[in-house]
Design brief:
It is built from 4 helices and 4 strands. With 119 residues, it is α/β, with parallel strands linked by helices.
Length: 119
């Protein structure tokens, strides 16, 4: 089974390229943008992502509106922030889990957070 990806953004031109690089395995990426004033939408389009704009109201309402109203290609949707990256191992796990989902309606991913990394 394939997976769609939802990326919430606002002025993420610095972080979005690396995020989208980590999603090259996906054939359905929607960048859900809160009217960025930088190059975020152009970067998303260069990577082949669809860009949908909506004014941000609050995190839960915004994300829930997107999940209910955006035209995802696949039944499963993976949510990621622009400053996050998906490792190849995580991508393989997500595809495997959704392919054998059975009656499952959601999965939880254990995160690995890194802070204050210089480089």
């Amino acid at each position: 089974m394939s997976v769609s990806v939802l990326v919430l953004t606002k002025n993420e031109q610095k972080d979005l390229p690396a995020c989208l690089e980590s999603l090259l395995w996906c054939d359905d990426i929607i960048v859900y943008d809160s009217f960025s004033t930088d190059e975020t939408p152009l970067i998303a389009e260069r990577f082949g992502a669809r860009v949908v704009k909506r004014e941000f109201d609050n995190w839960s309402a915004h994300q829930n509106w997107g999940l209910r109203n955006l035209p995802f290609k696949h039944s499963w949707v993976f949510y990621i922030d622009a400053d996050e990256r998906m490792t190849p191992q995580l991508a393989a796990s997500v595809k495997s889990a959704t392919g054998a989902a059975g009656d499952c309606v959601a999965f939880r991913v254990q995160r690995r957070d890194f802070s204050w990394i210089h480089g």
